[in-house]
Design brief:
Family: Belongs to the YkuD family.
Largest sheet: 10 strands, mixed
GO cellular component, one term: extracellular region
Distance between the termini: 29 Å
CATH class: Mainly Beta
GO molecular function: glycosyltransferase activity; peptidoglycan L,D-transpeptidase activity
Number of strands: 10
Number of helices: 1
CATH architecture: Beta Barrel
Shape: globular
CATH topology: L,D-transpeptidase catalytic domain-like
Keywords: Cell shape, Cell wall biogenesis/degradation, Glycosyltransferase, Hydrolase, Lipoprotein, Peptidoglycan synthesis, Transferase
Structural class: mainly beta
Radius of gyration: 14 Å
Pathway: Cell wall biogenesis; peptidoglycan biosynthesis
Helix content: under 10%
Number of domains: 1
Strand content: 35-45%
């Protein structure tokens, strides 16, 4: 599917990520934002609000469950492995804040990414990032280019 004008909206209140093509809703998935709430301070582990763009994409072609550290593949997570760690899995959309209040988002390493804790999807559970189920992350990654606008709202 080719989208002429993709954009993303993340609702912290409903824990949903929506993909639009212009004004038309194309896909919607449950997600997980920060269990520590909303915030902009580095080291707070909180999810920032406002307007962002997808600055970088990482993981194209990686297997579902690929573990990334510093955006590099370092192994593969399989069910039954550690679920207490907050692994960054499968694909990464690295966000860049475009407003003064969220301008440090890129330096805070705020991503949209897959997770090893798929049972927590639909409720706040992350350390600031927006998590998706791994297969849904692959679908999203394939649909949006770098430069896609992202809006995170309460």
């Amino acid at each position: 599917m080719n989208l002429a004008s993709p954009r993303l909206e993340v609702s912290i209140g409903t824990q949903r990520l929506r993909l639009y093509d212009g004004m038309k809703l194309v896909r919607e998935w449950p997600c997980s934002t920060s269990k520590f709430g909303i915030g902009f301070t580095e080291g707070s582990n909180k999810t920032p609000l406002g307007r962002f763009v997808v600055k970088e994409k990482h993981g194209d072609g990686a297997e579902s469950g690929t573990i990334f550290k510093s955006r590099q593949p370092v192994g593969r997570w399989v069910p039954g492995m550690d679920t207490k760690s907050d692994f960054v899995l499968t694909r990464i959309l690295w966000l860049h804040g475009t407003e003064p209040r969220n301008a440090n988002t890129y330096q805070r390493y705020i991503y949209i990414h897959g997770t090893n804790d798929e049972n927590a999807i639909g409720r706040p559970a992350s350390h600031g990032c927006v998590r998706l189920r791994n297969q849904e992350m692959i679908e999203l990654f394939d649909l949006v280019p770098a430069g896609t606008e992202v809006w995170i709202e309460e």
